Each structure stands twice: as C-alpha cells, then as structure tokens.
Amino acid sequence: MLLFVCAEHNLRAQGELTSDDVQNSIADAEQLLKEYKYEQALEVLKYARQAAQYNNDDKNHSYISNLRGQIYEMNDEIEKAISNYSTAKILAITSKNRVLEIDALNNLGRAKLKKPNLINEAIEDFNQSYQFAAVLKDTTRMVKPLLNLGKHYIANKKYKLAYQKLSPAQKLISPKSDATDRVKLNLLLGKYYLNTDQLDLANQSLDSAVSVAKKEIRNHQNNKDLTFCFNLDLADAYRAKSNLSYARGNFKKAYKLLDQHTKYYNDAQRIKKDVDLQKASIKFDVDEYKKQAQKMEEDLDEKENEEIKWRISIILGIVIILISLAFLISSYKNNLQKKKLNQDLIEKNKELRTAKETAEQVSTLKSQFISTVSHELRTPLYGVIGLTSLLMENPDAKKKNEYLESLKFSGDYLLALINDVLQLSKIETNEVKLEKVSFDLKILIEGITNSLRTKQKSNNNKVHINLDESIDSTLIGDSVRLSQILINLMGNALKFTKDGNIWVNVKCLEDDKKSCKLRFVVKDDGIGIPKSKQKDIFDNFAQVKNQNQEYEGTGLGLAIVRKLIHLHESEIFIESEEGKGSEFYFDITYEKALKEKEVLLTTGENLSIGTTNFNLLVVDDNKINQIVTQNILKKKGYSCDIAGNGADAIEKIKVNDYDLVLMDINMPELNGLEATKIIRTFNSQLPIIALTAVEENEIRVQATAVGMNDVIIKPYDTQQFFQTIIRNISKIKTI
C-alpha cells in the first residue's frame, strides 16, 4: 500500500508516466499477489493501468487486465473477472500479441465455465486458444485449454468428447512438462478410463498422478499454493482409486483408499485455512490503516477549525473525541469477536459437512459390503446345511452322526450370525419398514415355541405360554418383526437357563374398538444379569462375560430387538437379579381385524395335501444346490427335473408339463428374472417361485415385477419350504 502511495505521489509530481513505471508496478503487483495482498495489488495495478494508458502501451495494458481478472476470479467475483479478461483479449488483438491473446482466451473460458449460461462461449474460447497456440507450436499453451475442456467434459459425463481433448494433450505432455499439467492429465485420464470400464489403464493413470503429486509436495513444501493444489489432486485421485477397487470387488482396499482420500482432503483444507487466515489478517491490516488515515485527516481538519473558533469549543471537541473513541473501540472489539465467531462457525460447518459426506459414503460402502458378503456366504451354506441334513438321514452315515450333527450345528450358527449382521445393517440404514398384515397371535407364539424346541430340550427347560383371553385372535401389524423380537428374547432365555422355566406372558393394557395395546413379557429363572451390565446389553456386540465362556454368541440379538421395538415407537425394559433370572418386557399397539381377513399362518402346519404326485422343475446352476433340492423333493415323493440355467428351463417348460418351478436368480447366460419374463409370454399360469440366497426385501419387488409368484430364501426351513410350494400349487388347482 505504501508503495502505491509513493507511486501516486511521483505521478503528480513529475507529470509524466514511463514504461519503466509500468514494468515496476507489474512486478510489485505480482509480488503482492504471492503474499495474498490482493487489495494492495489491485491498487498498484490501477496505477500501472494509468501508466500504460498514458503511454498507449496496449501490450502491458493487456497483461495488467489479465492479472486483475485473476485476482477477481480468486475472490469469486466472476463478472469482474470476465470483464477484465475480455479487455485483455481486445488489447492483445490491438497490440497484435498472439501469446497474450492465447492466455486471455484460456482465462476467459475458465471464468465463463462458472456461469451456466456462458458454457458454450467458454468452450469456443478454449478451442480458439488451442488453435492459436497450435499455430505458434507453443505446446505448453496448447495443453492448458485441452485439459480445461477435458475436465469440463468428464464432470458432465461426456466421456467421448473428453477423450478427444485428452488424447492430443497426452501426446504434447512429456516427463519434462509442467508437473501440474502432468498430474491433471493423468487424473483426468484415470477418471475417463474408470468410467469407460478400462480399469487397468485407469489404475496406471491414477498411480502416475499420485506419484508425481507426492513428489511435488515433497519438493515444494514451503509453497502453500502448490501443496494445496497437489493435496486436492491426491484426494481426487484416491477417491477415484477407491471407486476402482470397489468396481473390482475389493471392498477392503476401497475402504482403505477412502481413508487416503480423507487424509489428503483434510491436508488441503488445513492449508486453505492457513492461507485464508493470512488473507483475513492482511485485509484487516489494510482496513485498519485506512480507518486510521481517515481518522487522522478528520482530526487535522477538526483542529484547524478549532484554532479559528472559540477556545471553549476545544474542550467540547476533546470530550466528543474521547466518547467517539470509546465507542469505536467497543464496536471494534465487538466486531472482531463477531468476525472470529462467524469464521469459527464457517470452518466448523465446513468440517462437519466434510465429515458427514465421508461418513455417509463409508456407511453406504459398509452396507453394500455386508449385503454382498452375506449373499455370497448364504449360497454355499445352503449346500453345506442341506447335504449335512441328507447325510444325517442316510442309514450308512449313522456311525458318523455325531460329527454330522456338529457340522449342521456350525452351519446353522453361521447362518444365524449372517442373518443377524444383515438385519442390523438394514435397520441402521433405514431399510426396514413395518408392514401391516393380519395374523393370529396364538398361532404365531406357538410356532415360535415349536421352532425353539431343540434349544429347549438341550438345556432341559420348560416353556409356559400365558395369553390374556381378552386379546382378539386376529390382529393387524408386522408379524415378522414381532417374531424376530420374540425369537431373540426366548432364545436368550433358553440359552442362559438350565433345568428351569421360561414364561411368555401377553396381556392387554388398553383396548378399544379399533386397536389394543399389548404388553409382552419374557421371563426366566436363569443366571440373571448383573446391575452393572444391564445398561450395555442392548449395544451392538455386547455380552455378559463369564469365566468359563459357557454361553457363546455374537451379542447382536438384543441390539436387534431394541431397534425393532424402536421401529414400533416403543421401548424395552429389563428387571434382573444375578442368580435369580431376568424379565424383559415391552408394549406394542396393534390394530384389530374388523372384517374377516386371510390370516398369515406362521407355523406352516395349517396347510395339508392329499397328494404328492407333483412334477417340479428345479432351475439352478450350482450342482450341489441341485442335489440338495432334488433330494429334499424326492424324499417327499415329488418327481423332479433339473435345468442348469434360464435358457435350458425355457426349453424344458415348452415341452413338459410342470406343476411348479423353483427358479434361482443369479445364473450365467440367462438369469432367473429374465427367464421368468420370457416364460410369462407363453405360460401365465405356471407357478414360479424364486429360490435364492438374496435378502427377501431386496428381491421380492423385482420377482413380483417379472411375474414370479413367491420367494423362498436359502437356507430355508423344510416345513416352510413345502408349505410355500403347496400354497402356490393350490391357487391354480384343487388338491
């Protein structure tokens, strides 16, 4: 600023402006820019522009306008930036300086890209800048507009157009080229190859970008502008590499690369914060200098007037000045505090937004990973559990029955763990929605008790069920979620109780014509839970530890219970004393069935069949799954045909009469959904059931859309398996 004042003084004193004045002012302004003193730089350039105009120096005038445009663009004053770049272009043409015109066109295009209504003009400016640079064979200036266009097309998913610009840029850039251009080119090529499924090339380009950027950061540690840009480029590159690993199915590596993205993004933000603080400090110094200069001038004028006026007014003036100063100091301090608070809030909000976006992406990646892995584990488990069950029923395997039972127990335990993890993941990502269906509460609880009979016998426990007689037999609500809650609570009670009793009590708390509020109580006389542990048992993976490690489990059951009860807008409570047992209770309100409705049968024992002379087609590409399903059906007396894929199934259905089709979903050549869609074009009556390891909520909508009648999730309960088959056959023929 002092430099500018001295320059202005010389201008007035000498009465003429020289070319040396222009060059010196430009050099001073460029130095001020490096120190982030933008306002001072603009003042110096204002003087330089006057000097250039005075000397009719269009060349330097163009250069000055370009510099002014860059300052305004850095301060996000895009309109002023475009105006100065346009002036720079016109003056470059007037001075017949093609290099300045090329720079002005490239800068003009970059600024116009930030205005949606000027994008076409921006593209035209970039193309013109490239063409003029090509005539001069200036490879450095040819590269800039090509990279800017490539970046624009990549951002707008116009990958073909992007490659048309990046390909010539690749030929122009060598290992000796500007490092910034090399990083940008490899980063853009990496994104292009990633989005066009050329994953190996994408990996090579992104690795090159990372290598150069890291080297430049090491070599320019004291240059905040360069390290900021290269840290942002590294964050962008690692984000793309994470997406690439995810596309290859390497979820663990994708997650680690996402951490690298976050690290370099945070490094860039820290540098930006330092620079912003430096800018703010400089701006404050300039503003304070202006205020002080203005105040001094006002004081001088006031003193001159006071010399002329009566001496008595001097005292009054001093009093006014003191009051004004006190007010100014107070206001100044308040403003400083407000500015600091506002700046802190802005920074915190930025950090929170970044953390939120990163957390959301990590959460999505985690959910997708869990869903995929769960499906991949369920498919082989179906074969393991199914083959084990068949071997246990084989007379020749009786001698090894103990080993087979252990194998089946391990398979069932692993399946339960997978289901728990998947269920918890879906609840946490808000994918579970409560449904309203009619169900018989008594049948539901009896069915749950029957399903836990093996666990009941293993610890020699007795289960007592007490239902309030005033409760309507048919209710409307989500019976599946209620089953999950009760199975987990009863399963826990049976596990932690030996030679004891488990009570399941349901009583009506509130009753009216449309709904009733029920209290469910699951009580046992088992080992109980210490007071110190009762607050934590509903947390994920929480378990009551014991010295003998007698009670195995994942610690997910009660966490799932509480989250499912929360879905019902209720809460679960516990009363327990160590050595005397535990009591869990919760309240849920259900609607009453006002009309006769079809009740969802939960036990699978209410459908009967007069014949087993059915002919079924099993469509599955997995040989083990074929054997398991075929043996289960034949054991029931059904005849069974096998198809290894969707295309084979279509041909068999055209020439054979089947009563029902069990269709796998994920198959090569033609998957189950596509095959069903084709079958429905010539056979609309044949029942088709999806037999899949995919989570039911994920596949049911798709299955229904293509014409499937029902869904069975592998591994399945055999009784429910046959009831589903019978139910669907009974809809089209009299059994």
Automatic annotation (TrEMBL):
It comes from the Bacteria. Its EC number is 2.7.13.3. Keywords: Coiled coil, Kinase, Membrane, Phosphoprotein, Transferase, Transmembrane, Transmembrane helix, Two-component regulatory system. It catalyses: ATP + protein L-histidine = ADP + protein N-phospho-L-histidine. Residues 615-729 form the Response regulatory domain. It is an enzyme of class 2 (transferase). Pfam families: HATPase_c, HisKA, Response_reg. The keyword rRNA-binding does not apply. Residues 279-313 form a coiled coil. One of its GO terms (molecular function) is phosphorelay sensor kinase activity. The chain crosses the membrane at residues 310-330. The modification 4-aspartylphosphate is found at D664. Residues 372-592 form the Histidine kinase domain. SMART domains: HATPase_c, HisKA, REC. This is histidine kinase. It comes from Aquimarina brevivitae.
